[in-house]
Amino acid sequence: MDVLTWLIDSTGVDAHWSGYTGEAAVSSEAQVASSAVIEPGVEIGEGSVICAGAVIKRGSRIGRNTIIRENVVIGSDGVTVYRAADGRLLKFPHVGGVSVGDNTEIGANAVIAGGILAATFIGNDVVIGNLCNVGHGAVVEEGVWMSVGSLLGGHTTVHAGATIAMGVSVRDNLVIGAEASLGMGSVVVKNVEPNHSMFGNPAKRMVGLKTGPKR
Questions:
Q1: DSSP secondary structure string for all residues of 105-171
Q2: Can you tell me the distance from the alpha carbon of 111 to that of 130, in angstroms, rounded to the nearest whole number?
Q3: Which of the following is catalytic: 136, 155, 159, 196?
Q4: Which of 51, 76, 112, 205 has an alpha carbon within 20 to 30 A of 131's alpha carbon?
Q5: Smallest Cα–Cα separation from 161: which of 196, 130, 201?
Q6: What are the phi and psi torsion angles at 3 (to 5°)?
Q7: Which helix (H) or strand (E) segment is 99 a member of?
Q8: How many angstroms separate the CA atoms of 28 and 43, rounded?
């Protein structure tokens, strides 16, 4: 952590997503509200819409035809504080950035934390509801549907087509299988197999439970 901090401060190293350049640009065909904050080094693809009050931080990439709703924050640091052997409290620098795919929608007041060393990844055709939080280094694959007020811990992977209902909390470092369903208000503390349905606190398998819209 000390070495990485020194590299950032002394040499200006950037280790964001593959192909990152500090000269990343906003497409002339994107719509960006005048009150949105777009830091240098942000890429926004054609046809995307960035609504009022959104904050897109350096090292973030937004694909094409994606909607970022009001007051969304993309690329903020997560909580990564460690105590060194000498007693100092050290914060792990976040240099991974965020990569958001095409045809995706992120709801109002959601937060997508930046990755530490690798990008936080949101795939194509994803829907993330209002007031959701996606932790640093998480991977959300294509077609995932994540409803209002759900929380996804850092470094968790949600595979394609999974559905996360309202108010679900998923612990960090888990794997949610493809086409899995997590029922409303569930607290998920272990990996979920593909096509399994989980419900409760702690979440347990519920055969036949389906959540979210029909695909």
A1: EE-TT-EEEPBSSS-EEE-TT-EE-TT-EE-TT-EE-TT-EE-TT-EE-TT-EE-TT-EE-TT-EE-
A2: 9
A3: 136
A4: 205
A5: 196
A6: -65, -45
A7: strand 98-100
A8: 11
What is the average per-residue pLDDT within 62-83? 88
Query: Can you tell me the distance from the alpha carbon of 175 to that of 183, in angstroms, rounded to the nearest whole number?
Result: 16
Q: What is the pLDDT of residues 156-168, one digit of tens each?
A: 999 999 999 999 9
Dist CA 27 CA 31 (whole Å): 9
Burial track 163-182 (b if 16+ CB lie within 10 A, e otherwise): bbbbbbbbbeebebbbbbbb
Look at residue 1 and tell me whether its pLDDT is greater than 90. Answer: no
Structure tokens at 161: 């087509």
- Domains in the chain, start-ordered, CATH in brackets? 26-196 (2.160.10.10)
Round to the nearest angstrom and report the end-to-end CA distance of the chain.
43
Question: Does 136 qualify as catalytic in the annotation?
Answer: yes
